[in-house]
User: What shape does this take?
Amino acid sequence: MQVLLNFFIKHNHWFLFLLLEGISFMLIVRFNNYQSASFFTATNRVAGDVYSMITNVNAYFGLKKENEELLKHNLDLTKELTELQEQLATLTAREALDSNAVYERNRERYLFNTARVVNNSLNSFNNYIVLDKGTADGVHPEMGVFGNDGVVGVIYTASEHYSLVVPLLNSKSNISCRVRNNDNFCTLQWDGEDISYSYLIDLPRYTKFEQGDTVVTSGFSSIFPGDIPVGIIDRVEESKNGMFYRARVKILTDFASLNSVYVIGNRGYEEQQELENKKP
Amino acid sequence: MTRTYLIRFCNFVILALVQVLIFSNIHLFGYATAYIYLLFILKLPRLTSRNELLMWGFFLGLIVDIFGNTPGINAMAATAVAFTRNSIMSAFITKETADDFIPSVHNVGVARYLSYALVCLLQFYILLFILELFTINYPIPLLINVSSSCLLTMLFIAVAEFFTRK
Assistant: This one.
C-alpha cells in the first residue's frame, strides 16, 4: 500500500499530464465540429463493426427458427399460388367458353359449365375421364361434355365434386350424329383400337356423303344440341352384312392433350327428371 | 517568491495577449502561424516542477484556444511541450547551473539555445497540426505547415532573444 502510494506521489506529474491532456482532448472533440465529426465517425465505425460482428454471430443461433418461419412462409405462398392458379384457370376457361360458337348458339336453352380434366385414360377398351366438377357445381349424369375442337363424351355419373365421363373412346359410347348437309342420323361407335378414329355405323346405303364431310351431333337426343362438330369422314366402306355403309371418322378432339372442357346440360333437366319419375 | 510569481503571471498575461491579439492573426501564406507564447514555457527556470510547468502550459494553451476558437488543440499541444520541456532542456544544458537558471542566447550560446527551442517547437507543431487536421493521411500538407510555422516562430524567438538585454 505504502509502495503504491509512494508510486503515485512520485509520478504525480504523469497523472496531472494525462488529466490535462484528457481535458484538452475532450474540449477538442466537444467543441470543434470537424474534429468531433471525425472522432465520432471513427468511433462509430469501430462500434458499428463490433455490432455487426455480434449480429453475425447471433444470426447463427436464430437460423433454426428463421428456417421454420421461412418454410411456413413458403408453404403459405405455395398455397396462395395454387389458389390463384386455380382461379386463373377457371377464368381462362370461362373466357374461352364465352368465345365458343356452341355456347353462342345454345346458351338460352342449355346450361354451360367449365371443368378441368383431372384423370384421363386412353389405352384401354373402355376409357374414362374424370372432371373436377360434380353435383355441387350443377353437373349431373347425362350431360354432354365437349371441348374447343369438338365433342368429348357424356357424363356417366357424378359425385359431389367430381364426375365421370364416358368419352368417345369407350365402346359403350353411343353418340347420335349426322353428316352435315344431310338429315339422316346415325351412331358413332369406337372399335377400341386407334384413339384418333371412330366409326359411323348403320349409314343407310341411300345417303349421300363423301370423304371429308364433317360429322356433327344430330340434336335429336336431349344431351347435346345440334351441330357440335365430332369428326371428319376419313374412309367409307361397306358393313359386314352389306346392308349399310360404315365410315371411319377422324375424331376432332385430341384426347391425349385434353385439359379444359365444357359441360353442357339441358335447362329443363331437373324438371324432366321429376316428370319422368311420376310415370305410373 | 511572491514577486517571482507576480512577474511570471504578468509575463503570462502579456504573452497571452500578444499571442491572441497579434500573432494568432498572422497566417503567413496560409500555412505558417507563429505561436510565440511557447517562449513562456521555454523561459521558465530550469528546475521548475513538472506539475507547475503542466499547469502553466495548459492554461496558456487554453487561453489561446479560447480566443482562437480552437478549444483544446493548443492546450493539448502546449501541455505536451510543458511535460517534456525539462527532459529536452537537460539534453542541451549542463546540469552544473543554478536551479533557477533561465536559458537564453547569451548564457548558453546561439546554437544550443536555438536547438533547444527548435526541438520544443517541432514537438509542439507536429502535435498541433495533427490535432488540427485530425488525420495523418495527408503528410505533405502536415509537413509544410509544421516546417513553415517552426521557421517563422524561430525567427520571432531569435529576434526577441537578440533584442533583450544581457
Remarks:
- The radius of gyration of chain A is 41 Å.
- The longest strand of chain A covers residues 110-120.
- Chain A has two domains: 2-60, 109-277.
